[in-house]
Amino acid sequence: MELSRRAFLTGTTGLALAGMVSAASAAGGTRTLRVATHQIEVAGKAATRYGVSDGSGAYGLTLDEGDMFDVRLENRLKVPTGIHWHGMTCPWRQDGVPHISQPPIPPGATYDYKFPATPPGTRFMHSHFGLQEQDLLAAPLIIREASLKGRDVQEVVVLLGDFSWQPPEEIFATLRKPPDGGAAMHMDHGGPDLNDVDYDAYLANDRTLDDPAVFDVERRGRVRLRIINAGASSNFTIDLGPLQGSLVAVDGNPIVPLTGNRFPIGISQRADIEIELPGDGKAVPVLALGEGRALRAGIILRPAGAAVSKVATTGEAAGPVVGLEQELMLKASAPLPRKPIDRSIPVALEGTMMGYRWGMPIDGMSGQPATVNQGERVEIVFRNQTPMSHPMHLHGHIFQVTEINGRAIDGALRDSIMVPPEATVKVVFDADNPGLWAFHCHNLYHMAAGMFSTLVYRGFS
Q1: Alpha-carbon span 438 to 98, nearest angstrom
Q2: Considering only CA atoms, which of 327, 226, 240 is closest in space to residue 19?
Q3: pLDDT band at residue 79 under the 50/70/90 scheme
Q4: Model-level pTM?
Q5: Banded model confidence at residue 354, pLDDT cuts 50, 70, 90
């Protein structure tokens, strides 16, 4: 099955991607999601990539808080696949990770999932099979919060991605060659390594700024941007230009609102930003600046009758480095209850660009899983000993950031945390979801090169 690019998002209808739900979704019952190819356009050239759509052709899935996640996943690709429900606290056998929580889904086969759709907020879905995520196999998964019902706010979902004309297997092979072995690897020997892959384009809702998604909005309306960094290997900074926005949730979890016009978003992280549109009637670009590169992506918010000016795919300067300055300012609006730590797990983030080898030994032992007992309050201590940032993601759990480089904070609730070079970050969570869970760096190529482990509950079944 091949889906047209316009089926992904026309933009001109004024409907956010999250609002494009099928009748089956509205009526309840089992939803069907199909993994298939579709066409996009980059720099005037057509490209066939992967995607996940519902029965109506809309990409991704939107549910309401309190719904069941009742999904039949159809694999219409010619290769096996597996889709992970990122940020969901589902039972471990429903987590969608091939060879850990389920077998890969063969071509033409289906797999059923059913569990409470929790927690609410901005989540997403993506392949956890091979390097398919680089072929854009990701889509929004929105569990719309009950607290938003009745509010006069328009929701706009933005899925960011990084695009290369080079197949992901070739990218990975080039990265693993000696440093002079290919153009795909970039390393700044005078500082931290920001980008290993020299991407051809950055995307927002599968589109470049040459032909961006345009959302019709009210002249003085309030908009909630649900921004998802589904990039395989790219960090971004969201740039609102002269507008001020309020960051109200990260990784789908509410925070004490933080006002600004630039918000960093690491690989696999999400940012919910609310903005009030000015009454001047002008179109408003929302840009995603690539870390360390002038390349960028974005969307346009268009009040009725506004002209849409062309926005260049590159800016005048490289995008900011994504660090932890903002993270220090974030506070969960409903933090975890204070409890003594029952178990502290040290995780060293190690690696080298020579041969492109990465690892995350736990308790000093490579290949060892993190082990916990049900009911424990668990602390993870990430120490990054490499020249690259690592977006560390734990499946099946929500954790709270509690310490950054020795500074204690009542930080945000997250499922992915950036750990910059030479940084130490502590997070805590409650071991309340027994199973065997993937635990890894969310930079696709770091994960493929060895920065992958598991969290195992003792005695689970």
Answers
A1: 10
A2: 226
A3: very high
A4: 0.93
A5: confident
> Is a pLDDT exceeding 60 seen at residue 16?
no
Q: Are 127 and 81 in contact (CB under 8 A)?
A: yes
Give pLDDT, residue 461: 77
- How far apart are alpha carbons 435 and 461 in whole angstroms? 7
Mean pLDDT of the chain: 91
Select from 3.40.50.720, 2.60.40.420, 2.30.30.140, 1.20.120.1760 the CATH code of 161-323: 2.60.40.420
Q: Does the domain made of 343-457 have the CATH classification 2.30.30.30?
A: no
Q: Residue 275 is encoded by which pair of tokens?
A: 């903005």
pLDDT of res. 98: 96
Please give the span between the terminal C-alpha atoms of the chain, in angstroms, as a whole number.
38
Report the C-alpha gap between 422 and 424 in whole angstroms: 7
Q: For residues 107 and 406, what is the distance between their CA atoms, to the nearest angstrom?
A: 49
Cα torsion angle, 256, 257, 259, 260, sign: positive
pLDDT (mean) for 9-21: 37
**Residue 6 reports pLDDT greater than 80:** no
- Quick one: tokens of 373? 């007992």
Distance CA 300, CA 293 (A): 21
Using alpha carbons, list the distances in angstroms from residue 128 to 99, 103, 334, 440: 10, 11, 30, 11
CATH number corresponding to 2-144: 2.60.40.420
Residue linked to tokens 């007992």: 373
